[in-house]
Amino acid sequence: MSAPLPPVLVVDDEKNMRLSLKTVLADEGHPVRAVESAEEALSLLGQEEFLMVITDARLGGMSGYEFLSKVRAQWPEMPMLMITAYATPKLAVEAIKAGAVDYLAKPFAPEELLHAVARCSERYRLLQENANLRARTIETYRLEHMVGDSPQMCDLRRLIQTVSPTDARVLILGESGTGKELVAGALHSLSQRSRANYVRINCAAIPEALLESELFGHEKGAFTGALKQKPGRVEEADCGTIFLDEIADMSRPLQAKLLRFLEDGTFTRVGGTQELRVNVRLIAATNRDIIQAIAEDHFREDLFHRLNVVQFRLPPLRDRGDDVLLLAEHFLQGFSASMNRKVRSLSRAARQKLLTHHWPGNVRELRNVIERALILETTAEIQPESLPDFQLEAQLRRSVPGKAIGTESLDEMTANFERELILNLLEQHHFNLSKTAEQLKMSRHALRYRMERLNIARAGQPDDDTATTVSKPD
After folding, report:
1. Number of neighbours of residue 151 by Cβ within 10 angstroms
2. I want to staple 243 with a disulfide (CB 3.0 to 4.6 A). Which of 184, 268, 322, 414 is the partner?
């Protein structure tokens, strides 16, 4: 059910006309405030919200035309309808120039008046709907929704707060499912451009042949099927922010055009010759190894430097320690409310199982796991039996992109390799230390020592061979 509309403000120095207009509008369910002078109307406009103003052209004191001009200067978005008994084409032009959205000559049929009011009502509802959608978008990307107390997440939130107020271009790097879109949205919602459009494009989801037209628009007849001119998404984002996700999947020719656009904000539509200019903030993201893409000549190095003013590297979930449990509880509360379920917590065994998984799909995978568990669970808390066995997901660990060459020392890469090897074998042996040590041809004591050195922390008791909990160094 839509919210009630604000009242219509009627301004006429004839009492009978005020009553007549009020009756016609009230019969259609419109609340009405009626006054006899422009001065009184201006006072009310400064105190209350109105759907529109209906005014006579000739009023005692300030004229309707002067009133129109004052309202237009102070409340430029307020729709104004002028009515008059002295209608001429010249006066109609003057009324429209002064800011009236419509002009009715007395006597007029009630349907003419109601039609004009209905147009303003529809406009008001669309504006409110747009404002609500913007508010929900901003709410979606609040910093509070970035759940996690790990040092990486605390640093990330601080960096977002620092960078958001600027117009600096941002490059977000991270594996799939780590929250790149959430970071981009937060950068926009906390910026000075938050009231303007936030436009998102997934470069990998749009065919290469159509991506340029989607981004920069096209002219009528530019290609088969281009039946009319279409503005691009960069025009839609003017004065706001555009987020290009999976930018490393963009073709080399389009990368060159994007590079030119980044230089001064100018572009031409596909099939056009006119140079256009917009003012947008650009945020880009990719889950690919950008350095490798440059080395393989899939991504332009000069474009990388244009985009890489501020770089965000989002940590994979496996490196965030107990954030796994915080996120799981967060998703559990959300799904419990939306599904009207009474499950409110995770059992100890379920928590240990979540902590020992590698999470190749990161936060997105965890969200799906909790949703599935809540659907299957029949007790008051999530049990490990309601969680996947993770055997298939564990095989994805091998395909998770590694960190860019040159960003880690040899010792760090060796430690990571050793840690991955031990974790793989622990999962194969259901976290039984004796069997894992036997396969590695070392003693249990030596395995425990390596696990401590690599920050593979034990979740159970000292002699428990059933579970381990992973936490990496800060």
Report:
1. 13
2. 184
Query: Helices (H) and strands (E) in the chain — how many of each?
Result: 19, 18
* DSSP-derived secondary structure letter, 409: -
- Phi, psi (deg, nearest 5) at residue 11: -125, 110
Which DSSP letter does residue 298 get? S
Which has the higher per-residue pLDDT, 65 or 283? Answer: 283
Number of residues assigned to the chain: 474
Other beta carbons within 10 angstroms of residue 26's beta carbon come to 12
Q: Residue 181: which of 193, 170, 192, 191 has the closest Cα?
A: 170
Q: What is the rounded distance in angstroms from the CA atom of residue 34 to the CA atom of residue 239? A: 39
Task: Just give the CATH number of 141-313.
Answer: 3.40.50.300
CB 285 within 8 A of CB 173: yes
CB neighbour list of residue 233: distance below 8 Å, 6 or more residues apart: 199, 201, 214, 215, 242
- Whole-number mean pLDDT of the chain? 85
Q: 333-376, pLDDT tens digit by residue?
A: 999 999 999 888 999 999 999 998 889 999 999 999 999 999 99
Q: Which fold has domain 317-398?
A: Helicase, Ruva Protein; domain 3 (1.10.8)
Q: What is the pLDDT of residues 160-169, one digit of tens each?
A: 999 999 999 9
pLDDT at 471: 41
Contact in structure between 360 and 396 (CB atoms under 8 Å):
yes
Cis status of the peptide bond prior to 107, with omega within 30 of 0: yes
According to DSSP, residue 270 is labeled: B
Here the tokens at position 297 are: 């000549």
Element (H, E) at 37: none
Supply 221's token pair.
Answer: 């007849």
pTM summary value? 0.62
Instruction: For residue 229, give the H/E element and its range.
Output: none
Element (H, E) at 348: helix 348-356
Angle at the Cα of 271 (from 266 to 275), degrees rounded to 5?
Answer: 25
Residue 429 structure tokens: 């042996």
**In a 3-state reduction of DSSP, which class is residue 25?**
helix
174, 313 Cβ separation under 8 angstroms: yes
Q: Do domains 8-133 and 141-313 have the same CATH topology?
A: yes
- Closest to 454 in 3D by CA, of 359, 313, 315, 318: 318
The separation between the first and the last C-alpha atoms of the chain, rounded to the nearest angstrom, is 50
Superfamily of domain 8-133: Response regulator (3.40.50.2300)
d(C-alpha 66, C-alpha 57), whole Å:
9
Distance of CA 133 to the CA centre of its chain: 11
| Distance separating alpha carbons of residues 244 and 181, to the nearest angstrom | 10
